[in-house]
Design goal:
This protein has 725 residues and is an alpha+beta fold. It is built from 21 helices and 20 strands. It folds into two domains: 152 residues, Ubiquitin-like (UB roll) (Roll); 408 residues, Creatine Kinase, Chain A, domain 2 (2-Layer Sandwich), CATH 3.30.590. The relative contact order is 0.11.
Length: 725
């Protein structure tokens, strides 16, 4: 019987790995390359006429409408700058609802009649593009015969030059809309919701005595977790290659129980990769700041500095693309799937969220005595109101087939959306609920017991890793988003629920002031009302405990376990009213997002189901059958030789082999089942029939992995993939 060489070949190639030549130059000034490829404000200042520059600054920083007259001047300067950097093409970059990044490239060169070509780039081409939109998901917003879609320049997100060994491209971040002006992308609603939130944040600030405050924006600092595996393993694993996660694989003998990877020394090969990615990110003006090992073996994290939500969202997409391509250069695959390896921690993308402006900083900074920081308390109470009222929408904003593996498993926050405030703030809001807050628990210092070390200050509250939405000192951290998801979805919901809550606060306070109520008293009443109406969302306990879902249900909090449970939240009358009131989505747009969410779910589960069936049938079953035959031959040979044959090994292998066959048959049946016309019904059936059948196939296959002779097993094992870097 011939052994399968695929896995062994992969191992040999992994062993023979040589790192790529590095771009690192120790003589280079640190920080010199930062923003080198970005058409930033400072580049504009150098290259644009003063009046044009001023107009751009006002649009970017104060959100005043773009003056179309300046576009030609900006386009011309942008083209010259990009061509000096070796760009031959420009691309409108947009973010369709597939969650990926799309680009349409055009050459700067226009042929002139005499056989030569002339480089041109007008204001009009900068501002607007028209890619054929028919192949992007639109959820019923457009018929295919109405293929037109438009891209429009997002002036607030800087253009940049993307390098490629074969030539560079000027990239212009854009929105993507249909002919009717409806959003087909993730960026448009971020901008709309940002604008809505800013209007009402300003009203609240004015009530607190800020005269004509600077435009308030939402800030987003995304922490990105990811796995790295050697590319040779990827090529030997059709599941990783096509679905981004392993559909088979027994838990390794050495799991993550030792906790020896988290914050451990970063392996040299990985560190080389990280440094290379940081270089590329710096050139693009992406402020990558923190890097470390994560909990699982082979898992790591990168966290760029927070930025304005629309910019952070563009940068986050660009970061993922950059990580993928740099990993390839280092002979690795960067996996952003939420759960690439069963039984091993999954990957999230924590979205750190605050609102503020450059003048006032984050409006979610409590100071040392939050109980007398009324402005902070109002903004914080607005978050509480928003999350309690629209927790279901937040859950829906992170719903995907991949993230279903994470949420609710004991490693990621539960699917129940609750808020962790920390000891100090929880105490302050407790006092407010009882009528008014008069004191704040103190911060304190840590006693170390070593005289030479300086005292360390202690945070007023500890962290809570089990909460999906936690206050962390000057921001909230939304921990439910999946590693593969855009941050735009959660940011749109956060901005919009903040718009509603701040509108409510401003309207209440304005009315009280107009009635002659003392302002402090009005604030006190407002806070007490919010906390008694919406305080049920605050939970400072252990979100992993068995008691929490029961208590949450008593409190009336939703527990939307799967994507199929969560997506209908997008089309409730309450959600539609919210989004239309604040001009973020109309009803059609909400329905389109709901439909696309379900479509994507069905699509990704179906791909995985087909792969499971194929790999089970063509890789795992044959290996097991061969081994079974070998054992049977052994039994027969022993009998023929007159030796007593032990049947136990043969029987041990035969049981899971029968289960595998049965599972494959069940899965084939579930896949073949005719789809309903209704998207929700289809998704529900898939969740309830296909996923369980896949699980049965996997359970049998994983058992066989521990029984079948190693030389017959061609899939690289978890142990090999996770521990070789
Ligand atoms: P931790 O591991 O403590 O959660 P990290 O350093 O990994 O922290 O990531 C924290 C993230 O939060 C970074 O992206 C950081 O820029 C971001 N952040 C810090 N302050 C704010 C703020 N006021 N608003 C939004 N994001 C913030
Ligand atoms: Mg964090």
């Amino acid at each position: 019987m011939s052994a399968n060489p695929v896995r062994m070949q992969a191992m040999h190639q992994v062993e023979a790995y040589q790192p790529p030549a590095t771009a690192f130059d120790p003589a280079e000034e640190p920080g010199k390359i930062f923003g080198e490829n970005v058409f930033s404000l400072s580049v504009m200042q150098r290259r644009l006429p003063k009046s044009v520059y001023k107009s751009m600054v006002s649009t970017i920083e104060k959100s005043t409408p773009l003056d179309p007259d300046v576009a030609d001047a900006v386009a011309s300067a942008m083209k010259d700058w990009a061509m000096e950097k070796g760009a031959t093409h420009y691309a409108h970059v947009f973010y369709p609802l597939t969650g990926l990044t799309a680009e349409k490239h055009d050459s700067f060169l226009d042929p002139v009649g005499d056989g030569t070509a002339f480089a041109s780039f007008s204001g009009k081409t900068l501002i607007q593009g028209e890619p054929d939109a028919s192949s992007f998901p639109n959820g019923g917003l457009r018929n295919t015969f109405e293929a037109r879609g438009y891209t429009g320049w997002d002036v607030m997100s800087p253009a940049y030059v993307l390098e490629n060994p074969a030539g560079n491209t000027l990239c212009i971040p854009t929105i993507f809309i249909s002919m009717t002006g409806e959003a087909l992308d993730h960026k448009t609603p971020v901008l709309r919701s940002q604008q809505a939130m800013a209007v009402h944040a300003k009203r609240v600030l004015e009530l607190f005595g800020h005269e004509d405050p600077e435009n308030v924006v939402a800030y987003c600092g995304p922490e990105q977790e990811y796995f790295l595996v050697d590319s040779h393993f990827l090529m030997a694993r059709p599941d990783l290659l096509n679905a981004g996660r392993t559909l088979f694989g027994a838990k390794p003998p050495k799991g993550q129980e030792f906790d020896d990877h988290y914050f451990g020394a970063i392996p040299e090969r990985v560190l080389g990769f990280m440094m290379d990615t940081e270089r590329e990110l710096f050139k693009l003006g992406i402020p990558a700041k923190t890097r470390h090992n994560e909990v699982a073996p082979g898992q790591f994290e990168v966290a760029p500095m927070f930025e304005r939500a629309n910019e952070a969202s563009d940068h986050q997409q660009l970061l993922m693309t950059t990580f993928k391509s740099v990993a390839k250069k280092h002979g690795m695959e960067c996996l952003f799937h939420e759960k690439p390896f069963a039984g091993v921690n999954g990957s999230g993308k924590h979205v750190n969220f605050s609102v503020g402006n450059s003048e006032l900083g984050s409006l979610l900074v409590p100071g040392d005595t939050p109980h007398d920081n009324a402005q902070f308390l109002v903004f914080c109470a607005a978050v509480i109101r928003g999350v309690e009222q629209y927790g279901g929408l937040l859950r829906a904003s992170v719903a995907s087939a991949g993230n279903d593996h994470r949420l609710g498993a004991n490693e990621a926050p539960p699917a129940i959306i609750s808020i962790f405030l920390g000891e100090q703030l929880a105490d302050v809001f407790d006092q407010i609920a009882k009528g008014g807050a008069t004191r704040s628990k103190e911060r304190g210092t840590l006693t170390i017991g070593v005289d030479t070390l300086p005292n360390l200050t202690k945070d007023p509250g500890d962290r809570n890793r089990t909460s999906p939405f936690a206050f962390t000192g000057n921001r909230f951290e939304f921990r439910a988003p999946g590693s593969n998801q855009t941050v735009a979805g959660p940011m749109v919901v956060l901005n919009t629920i903040m718009a509603e809550a701040l509108d409510y606060c401003a309207t209440t306070l304005e009315a009280a002031v107009a009635d002659g109520t003392d302002f402090d008293e009005a604030v006190q009443t407002l806070l007490t009302t919010i906390i008694s109406d919406h305080g049920s969302v605050i939970f400072n306990g252990d979100g992993y405990s068995d008691e929490w879902p029961i208590e949450a249900e008593q409190r009336g909090l939703k527990n939307l376990r799967t994507t199929v449970d969560a997506l209908p939240e997008l089309i409730t009358p309450k959600a539609i009213e919210l989004f239309s009131t604040y001009g973020v989505f109309n009803e059609r747009e909400m329905h389109s997002r709901y439909e696309i969410g379900l479509e994507q779910y069905v699509l990704s589960v179906s791909v995985e189901a087909n792969l499971t069936l194929e790999m089970g049938t063509t890789i795992i079953l044959p290996a097991a059958v061969r081994y079974q035959t070998e054992l049977a031959a052994n039994v027969a040979a022993l009998k023929a030789a007159g030796v007593e044959a032990d049947l136990s090994t043969l029987q041990t292998v035969s049981a899971p082999l029968a289960a595998l066959r049965a599972g494959l048959a069940e899965l084939a049946g579930a896949i073949a089942h005719e789809h309903a016309d209704d998207a929700l019904e289809t998704a529900t059936v898939i969740r309830d029939t296909v996923l369980p059948a896949m699980a049965k196939v996997r359970a049998a296959a994983d058992e066989l992995e521990g029984l079948v002779a190693d030389d017959l097993w061609s899939l690289p094992t978890y142990q090999e993939m996770l521990y070789v870097l």
